[in-house]
């Protein structure tokens, strides 16, 4: 089931840009994170050998599902009725073919994918009993995407472009994506992706905010890294983070996981109440799903309150399942509830 959307002057409502990564999702005890050699809850790039070493040490085989931050958002936004496409570089292996087929079957236009000559990217997602996810990523073909492969033509006839923050690790590529999307007449938005991204690229991100981002998504860790001068001791403190982020001229969302979110735009400030989930198993993809719900309502011109409610619904349902994608069998109910919130 998908939701109806009003006809748009542009054939596409949304283009997602990021890494088409195949996710390897597995539950592990906290003790296993010693093998991952990094901070719990973060994302670290690894090479092919390190990925193979970690997979070999897993306590059980991982589940395989299409992932990637902007890809998850695009996938869910399509299910919520938006007309979408995705830009990212696929590999030349069976994982790449599985990835493209899954997106096409959902209705995402796949004609803007780039094609590589090496293995597809994959991400090992280690989910601990507290539902926190720690990620180790091998980028494969994604790393071969060149700024020269991106042009305004990639963004033709689209309303809005949603870019994942992981792209910012390659600032030349990120610059080309943003300038091309803007040249094509699209509004642009960014999900900050992780505190590591913000820590490594804070000045660049602040400059992009000054140039204009229509929608920005950050969680509490990313917000603290972006605005270290602001208090961050209570949930109420993050209202100031949302207002600061929105002060650059766009709409800002600061997500607080199980504690809800703050949304700001101009003089508006809205507190999004949390959706209580008593059977959470995996937080992987929840922020991406939250962004999809938000964008599906925002692109329909809904109020900030409605945007927050739809976002929270989709994000909360995601944590009830292993992996970043709500199972097909559960989706009709989610779509129906989202539709009722969008009125």
UniProtKB/TrEMBL annotation:
GO terms for molecular function: kinase activity. The keyword Magnesium does not apply. Transmembrane segments: none annotated. Residues 57-327 form the Carbohydrate kinase PfkB domain. InterPro entries: Carb_kinase_PfkB-like, Carboh/pur_kinase_PfkB_CS, PfkB_dom, Ribokinase-like. SUPFAM superfamilies: Ribokinase-like. PROSITE patterns: PFKB_KINASES_2. Keywords: Kinase, Transferase. Pfam families: PfkB. The keyword Membrane does not apply. Belongs to the carbohydrate kinase PfkB family. PANTHER family: OS01G0105900 PROTEIN, SUGAR KINASE. This is Adenosine kinase. It comes from Nibricoccus aquaticus.
């Amino acid at each position: 089931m998908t939701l109806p959307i009003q006809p748009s002057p542009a054939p596409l409502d949304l283009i997602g840009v990021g890494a088409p990564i195949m996710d390897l999702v597995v539950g592990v005890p906290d003790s296993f994170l010693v093998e991952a050699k990094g901070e719990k809850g973060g994302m670290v790039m690894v090479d092919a050998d390190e990925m193979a070493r970690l997979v070999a040490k897993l306590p059980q085989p991982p589940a395989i599902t299409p992932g990637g931050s902007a890809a998850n958002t695009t996938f869910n936004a399509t299910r919520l009725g938006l007309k979408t496409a995705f830009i990212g570089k696929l590999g030349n292996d069976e994982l790449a073919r599985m990835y493209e087929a899954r997106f096409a079957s959902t209705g995402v236009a796949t004609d803007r994918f780039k094609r590589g000559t090496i293995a597809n990217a994959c991400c090992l997602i280690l989910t601990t009993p507290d539902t926190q996810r720690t990620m180790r990523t091998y980028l494969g073909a994604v790393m071969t995407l060149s700024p020269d492969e991106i042009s305004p033509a990639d963004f033709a006839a689209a309303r809005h472009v949603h870019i994942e923050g992981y792209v910012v690790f390659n600032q030349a590529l990120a610059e080309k994506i943003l300038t091309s999307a803007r040249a094509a007449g699209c509004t642009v938005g960014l999900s900050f992706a992780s505190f590591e991204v913000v820590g490594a690229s804070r000045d660049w991100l602040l400059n992009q905010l000054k140039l204009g981002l229509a929608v920005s998504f950050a969680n509490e860790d990313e917000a603290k890294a972006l605005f270290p001068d602001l208090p961050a001791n209570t949930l109420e403190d993050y209202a100031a983070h949302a207002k600061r982020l929105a002060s650059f001229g766009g709409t800002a969302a600061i997500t607080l996981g199980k504690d809800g979110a703050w949304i700001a735009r101009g003089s508006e400030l809205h507190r999004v109440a949390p959706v209580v989930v008593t059977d959470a198993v995996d937080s992987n993809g929840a922020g991406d799903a939250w962004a999809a719900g938000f964008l599906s309502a925002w692109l329909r011109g809904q109020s900030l309150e409605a945007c927050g409610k739809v976002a929270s619904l989709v994000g909360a349902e995601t944590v009830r399942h292993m992996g970043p994608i709500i199972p097909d069998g559960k989706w009709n109910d989610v779509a129906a509830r989202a539709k009722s919130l969008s009125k």
